[in-house]
Amino acid sequence: MFHGYIHKDLQINSYGSYLRRRFGLRVSKVNVDGGFTCPNRDGTKGTGGCIYCDNASFSPGGTQAVIPLEQQIGEGMAYHRRRLRSEKFIIYFQKFTNTYASVEKLRDMYCRALANPDVLGISVGTRPDALGDDALSLLAELARNHYVCVELGLQSMDDDLLKWMNRGHSLAEYLKTVERVAGRGIDICTHLIYGFPGETRAAFLKAAELVSRLPIDSLKIHQLHAVRGTRLAELYEKGQYQPVSREEYTATVCDFLERIPATIAIQRLYGSAPLDLLVAPRWELKNNQMWYAIINELGRRGTWQGCGVPGVSRQVSNL
Ligand code: SF4
Q1: What span, in angstroms and rounded, lies between the C-alpha atoms of 230 and 244?
Q2: pTM of the full structure
Q3: Domains in the chain, ordered, with CATH?
Q4: Nearest ligand 1 atom, CA 54
């Protein structure tokens, strides 16, 4: 049975709805730390990391001992079962660059995650310049029988801003990687950030045009925020970085959502950090309050995701 994409209460195609439509039950993502490192810190692609990257979370050698994967998965699933009554799970390799290792290590980590009978698939966070052909072939192989999503951090489509944040890759590298991943049975999620110094709303909204043209399945958007121990926090303390206001962020994200097709599932609409680490902006809202600030603004406007895309009508899903 066909379902529309727009959740009837949310006015967007939320990732939770997407998963319910796709799998027919309640699915949660379980975050795990696979003990990976990052090529933007060890000199392979760059040094120092992205300007907003939480340095304190890196051990001096770039690697850290982690809790055994199976234990992380078990505890994460128990938490989501308790809290959300989730029935099945996607294991999210979140921390650092989760394709930056030998293909043998990648196969071991991914297959151990998929071995759990309640795991439907994996989501792998990585950089556009760190997805080698071996890793991509492995993911395509796993995608034949499982849900597999590659989460590509783009953050900005402006190469000058990518340089400013010491991202270590270009827009062209991102586009090339999307092209390589597309058509192989792998979902593509893109990460974007709004609120870089000097960035205008109009410039950020160009990214809505870009992702609308690409084979992107889902999106994560968040505000640029500074956490303790980062170079961005230092810039903030020196008065060299001024965060966007909550009102500006909310309005811009709504503008963005109106411009992208409802087929793109929305995984995240804001960023959060522990309050004792968050330096700026301090909006003093709980996570779901920020989510609903955006949803409510769409309601106030009487708009929805994709309403500004020519030729698109509002097809509502009750899932
Ligand atoms: S790519 Fe990710 S892990 Fe690496 S430095 Fe940037 S934010 Fe940190």
Answers
A1: 18
A2: 0.94
A3: 6-317 (3.30.750.200)
A4: 8
State the pLDDT confidence band at 139, using cuts at 50, 70 and 90: very high
- Among the residue ranges 12-16, 61-65, 263-267, 302-306, the one predicted with the least confidence is 61-65
Nearest atom in ligand 1 to the alpha carbon of residue 46 is: 5
Q: Which of 297, 213, 296, 315 is nearest to 259 (CA)?
A: 213
Choice from 33, 51, 94, 96 to test ligand 1 binding pocket (greatest atom count within 8 A of CB): 96
Kindly report the number of other CB atoms within 10 A of residue 85's CB atom. 9
Report the residue among 37, 40, 225, 232 best suited for mutation to probe ligand 1: largest number of ligand atoms under 8 A from its CB.
40
Enter the tokens of residue 101.
């290792």
Beta pairing, strands 265-268 & 218-223: parallel
Largest CA distance in the chain: 56
153 CA closest ligand 1 atom index:
1
Q: DSSP letter string over 68-131? A: -HHHHHHHHHHHHHHHH---EEEEEE-SS-TT-S-HHHHHHHHHHHHTSTTEEEEEEEE-TTS-
- Taking the C-alpha atoms of residue 162 and residue 50, their distance in angstroms, rounded to an integer, is 9
User: What does the alpha-carbon distance between residue 20 and residue 10 come to, in Å, rounded to a whole number?
Assistant: 15
Residue holding tokens 């804001």?
270
Residues with CB under 6 A from ligand 1: 38, 40-41, 49-50, 53, 96-97, 127
Helices (H) and strands (E) in the chain, counts: 10, 11
Length in residues, the chain = 319
C-alpha atoms less than 13 angstroms from C-alpha of 84 in its C-beta half-sphere: 15
Residue nearest ligand 1's atom 8 by CA: 53
Q: What is the mean pLDDT of residues 172-181?
A: 98
Residue 12 in contact with residue 301, Cβ under 8 Å? no
